[in-house]
Amino acid sequence: MTKKTLAKTLGINLPSPLQRLEMRSAPGNELALYCKRDDLIHPVISGNKWRKLSGNLQRILQTSGCDGSNEIRNSVHIGSFGGAYSNHLHALAFACFSLGIPCTAFVRTHPNSPPTPTLEDMHRWNCRIHFLSREEYRKRTDINFVNALLKAHSLSHMIEEGGSNSDALSGVGEIVSEVLAQSEQPFDSIVLPVASGGTIAGIIKAIRQRNITAKVIGIAVLKGERYLESMVNNLLDECQTQSSWKILHEPKFHCGGYAKINSEILNFSIEFEQSQGFALDHVYNAKSFFALNQLLMQKSPLLGKRAIILNTGGMQGNRGKIE
Ligand SMILES: *Cc1c(COP(=O)(O)O)cnc(C)c1O
Predict the structure, then answer these.
(1) I want to staple 285 with a disulfide (CB 3.0 to 4.6 A). Which of 144, 154, 182, 280 is the partner?
(2) Cα 105 to Cα 103: distance, rounded to the nearest angstrom
(3) Which residues contact 116 (CB under 8 A, 6 or more apart)?
(4) What angle do CA 251, 51, 255 make, to 5 degrees?
(5) Residue to mutate, 16, 48, 161, 165, ligand 1, most ligand atoms under 8 Å from C-beta
(6) Low-confidence residues of the chain, pLDDT below 50?
(7) Ramachandran sector of residue 247 (left: φ over 0; alpha: ψ -120 to 50; beta: rest)
């Protein structure tokens, strides 16, 4: 199955719009700002999760000899990892359900905690849900642990947490090709949230391949200085941070950890939704758009004269309680 057929089967809407965004800025800060609306790609398989899954699903279906017939699909059974509000697992479960592929989610949560709306959706889409303790979950990149899960659950493929692996990069790179086709002039910077690093790695790679000078600015949504850089470098097969990209680790932006938010960012995201007409998720985009707001107010030279912010979609986090 080609990527095009796959996208068509799942009802994926591409290219996502590139729209003008008006945000308050420091006086005299003349800058054209655009938002790449990947939140509009699909109601469930939203944002960067489709970008990362497309290459993974295509490769899996290809290597399993799937031509779209149900018979061959029966040899495929995909597993993956995530939390109880994971946008990635939610998107994967829905994609597998639509394609008729069995799917097992390995979820970091206590088996006695009440099911989240995200897990309830996945259950409805026939996704098998297997709980992992925090200790077990920590072994998610350990090859022996993964092999044991593959065997015990009769899986044919395991996709890394968040869908971030080398197969994810080309699909993410399509964001850059779309932007270049949608915009008459080159852009100076692109801002996006960073958690497992697959999205920023795909953007960096695409920008290099096309010889563009734009700066890639990642906003860490968790406490991960150096750790996030090494994840990105691993995905890019590099060992040094290059000048073409930078991850900002300000505690003011990540609020001390994954899925943690403070009232300043929460209020910002409420005001943003009221003034701009689209919502930001609390785990990723509330933080990256807040960071952009701060960079605009500080007249940060990082942004240049034409900046793009990537809305990575994914609203599952907003179905949980706010910490
Ligand atoms: C997963 C996710 C991210 C983080 O992307 P990584 O590739 O893991 O860095 C950003 N935004 C949303 C909405 C997500 O679901």
Answers:
(1) 280
(2) 7
(3) 84, 85, 319, 320
(4) 10
(5) 48
(6) none
(7) beta
Residue with tokens 């295509």: 58
Helix H or strand E encompassing 245: strand 245-248
Write the pLDDT tens digit of every residue in 193-251.
999 999 999 999 999 999 999 999 999 999 999 999 999 999 998 876 678 999 999 99
Tell me, what DSSP letter sits at residue 316? G
Q: Which residues is 130 bridged to in the sheet?
A: 106
Expressed in angstroms and rounded, the spacing between residue 192 Cα and the centre of ligand 1 is: 9
Give residue 201's pLDDT.
98
Atom of ligand 1 nearest to the CA of 168: 7
Cβ neighbors of 145 (< 8 A, separation 6 or more) are 136, 139
What's the DSSP call for residue 31?
-
Question: What pLDDT, on the 0 to 100 scale, is given for residue 69?
Answer: 57
The CA-based diameter of the chain, rounded to the nearest angstrom, is: 63
Beta strands, E only, 92-206: 103-108, 128-132, 157-159, 189-194
Nearest-atom index, ligand 1, CA of 313: 13
Chain mean pLDDT for the chain? 94
Rounded distance between C-alpha atoms, residue 79 and residue 155, angstroms: 6
- CA torsion 102-155-115-52 (nearest 10°) is -80
Residue 83 token pair: 């939390």
Which pLDDT score, from 0 to 100, does residue 65 have?
75
